[in-house]
Amino acid sequence: MTIAHRLSLSGGHVMHVEEHGHPEGLPALVLHGGPGSGSSPLLRSGFDSTRYRIICPDQRGAGRSTPTGSIAHNTLADLLDDLRRLREHLRVDRWLVVGGSWGATLALLHALDQPSAIAGLLLRNTFLARTSDIHDFFAEAARRGGPEWRVLWTEARRRQCPVATVLADIFAHGNSEAQRRAALCWFAWEQHLSGGTAAPPEDAVLQRLVPRYRVLSHYLRHGCWLGAPTLLQRCAALPAVPTRIVHGTRDAMCPPQGSQALARVLHGRAVLQWAQGAGHDPTHPALAAAMKQALRNYANTQTFSASAP
Question: For residues 121 and 100, what is the distance between their CA atoms, to the nearest angstrom?
């Protein structure tokens, strides 16, 4: 089964949603990273399509949702409202929520916003969106990412603002050439952190990267709207549902300490599982195997253990 939906949202946005798998299977909401990246087939690769109803929305401004790359009416509050609207539209009572990186962030926030809607949480390479997380990402880029990043860092110091603000201004107001240069710079740094040595993206790929980074820089500029109380502080109020956190031990983009901190806050209500040798790439064999096993266990027991309690 593959069904596509176009769901009208507030502010003139339209959400693209795809459903895969069995229409009567266990409902699973799959949240992509970014913000701004869009959903992809690899995010549902660990699911047994005979047992799950796999729901894959593209968040505002991302993927095939429209308007592409729009940051107008695009905030965390909007995304949470969209998930409430989506669940109502699909007539889902409770669902397993699966997300990696920013998708894990949004999964946690959705669980806090609608605790009665959550049957379980499966989180990969959690991003807590702390001020230090965002700062350290760009500070390390300035140290090791090449001259383009040092120019951005110098401009941020001159303006007395974070690098994320400089980038957000480029993607919101800069000319097309400035946006392309910034997208190439950001893409190369992400590839470096992921351990890849990919060649510069082709023009068609670069055209998709610009709106992706426009949305991402917009969220980072605003600290993802996660000031006091921080996401970590809020997570003490998460619903008591089966929760599994899977994290690559060598993730340089979302350091493992974030998932460790989350597991401590949950006081034994979540199991933290390390994917040895894995970084941020969800296709790494250790990460993919851990996620697939967790989904198999959940389908069997509605927990993440091999046998029901």
Answer: 11
pLDDT in tens, 107-132: 999 999 999 999 999 999 999 999 99
Q: Which of 278, 240, 284 is nearest to 259 (CA)?
A: 278
Statement: the pTM of the whole predicted model exceeds 0.90: yes
**Residue 22, token pair as written in the block:** 């069995």
Is the four-CA dihedral 171, 176, 181, 187 of positive or negative sign? positive
Show which residues are catalytic. 101, 251, 280
Q: CA-to-CA distance for 287 and 291, rounded, in angstroms?
A: 6
Burial of 300 (0-12, 13-18, 19+ CB in 10 A): middle
End-to-end distance of the chain based on CA atoms, in angstroms? 32
Report pLDDT digits (tens) over 191-237: 888 876 567 788 888 899 999 999 999 999 999 999 999 999 999 99
State the Cα–Cα distance between residues 33 and 40, nearest whole angstrom: 10
